[in-house]
Amino acid sequence: MDDEPDAIELIRFNLKASGYDVITAEDGEEALLKARKFSPDLILLDVMLPEIDGLEVCKILRRDPATAKLPVVMLTAKASEIDRVLGLEFGADDYVTKPFSPRELILRIRNLLKRQDEPEGEVERLQVRDLEINIPCHEARVEGKVVDLTPTEFRLLQILMERKGRVQSRDQLLQDVWGYDQLIDTRTVDTHVRRLREKLGKASNHIGTVRGVGYRLVEPTD
Questions:
Q1: What is the reported pTM?
Q2: What is the extent of the structural domain holding 20?
């Protein structure tokens, strides 16, 4: 969803050439209407949208139960670090900076959709004290109460729970959660961990920080 006709056409062409069906919108209001009407598999959202900007659109999508779990990739200006940070804070699963190569964009989209379609393993539930996840249902609970997580937040929590006690470096998490095989800004990991902790509330102390390395899931002794 972009407000520049040429950019929309470029993105539409490359996505369709890669086998995806594409629905477009030219402003934030139209983007929200179409997201609710069509419930797409993924939303590609430009920060610089008229009417309602992309950051606010992302925020509204995450507040609506009907669209809260839709994967969102933000398009941000390369020079605007604050837009990238805010996009992740507001619930975007990933971001691509402009100008971008169509190949990189398709790769990011494919990685995110692939995570949605990955077959489940033999283990269907994981639990550490009051924190529990149901993998087939993509559902997390704290003290029996459902916690609304984005697809990336759930994947991050699942990996940490599967590897309980083992330190996961930021680079390793970028590879295993986001599918990146090259070094990018590791603050993506930090932002998602911070959001995940906020949502987990009382169970946030299960996620420990290993200074200078990364994160691990722990079982508090208190």
A1: 0.71
A2: 5-117
